[in-house]
Amino acid sequence: MFFYRGDFNNFKDSQSKATLNESIHRTRYFSATRPYSGITVFISHKHDDLDLGELDGVIGMLKEYGVIPYIDSMDSKMPDHTCAETAKRIKDVIEFCDKFILLATNNAIESYWCNWEVGIGDVHKYKNHIAILPMKDYGKDYKGNEYLRIYSSIEYFDGTTRYNNTKEIIPKGFYVRTPMDEGHTIEPLKDWLRR
């Protein structure tokens, strides 16, 4: 299942500017030594891939679950130019954050930095704390790398899908699908974030 650009627009409301400003403020002064009252999530994305409005919608959706997002491009502690200190800061923040989410657009999948971040996330968060949010443009193929399929993915169910071969309907909402040796499991996004 894929999300399309614009799917998170309904999470932009009159509060979205305040939500984004709060997220930017927290990211600017993000410290791996400061305690946070909430779930911290490193959001890996291709900087030139998502315009601020798209990212705003994703942040708005996550904020509904009490998430404190970290977006490296908004971090005032990052060096002006990409260097070894950039990589060190990213590694430290990924290790510190509770969860790791990759906004897996085609451009992000092809990005060396995003792939490197997934590798760092794999070392510190493997399996239980990484999720892929696959997103594509309308009318374009999704390139998705095979290795991304070993991670959980964020999906949306509209309240009409049934659990495997049962009459029970999956309630409407966001879920995390986790691949298993035989099939997969799903759990509400809010439960995954708190775990």
Explain the overall architecture.
It is a single chain. The protein has 195 residues and is α/β, with parallel strands linked by helices. It contains six helices and eight strands, in the order E-H-E-H-E-H-E-H-H-E-E-E-E-H. Strands 1, 2, 3, 4, 5, 6, 7 and 8 form an eight-stranded mixed sheet that branches. Strand 7 (173-179) and strand 8 (184-188) form a beta hairpin. Helix 3 (84-96) packs parallel to helix 5.
In N-to-C order, the SSE pattern is EHEHEHEHHEEEEH
Helix fraction? 25-40%
- How large a portion of the residues is in β-strands, by DSSP E? 15-25%
Oligomer: single chain
End-to-end distance, in Å? 23 Å
Number of helices: 6
Query: Which whole number gives the mean pLDDT?
Result: 85
Low-pLDDT ranges? none
Given the C-alpha coordinates, what overall shape results?
globular
Tell me how many strands there are: 8
The major beta sheet can be summarized as: 8 strands, mixed
Which radius of gyration do the C-alpha atoms yield? 16 Å
Assign the structural class, choosing from mainly alpha, mainly beta, alpha/beta, alpha+beta, or little secondary structure: alpha/beta
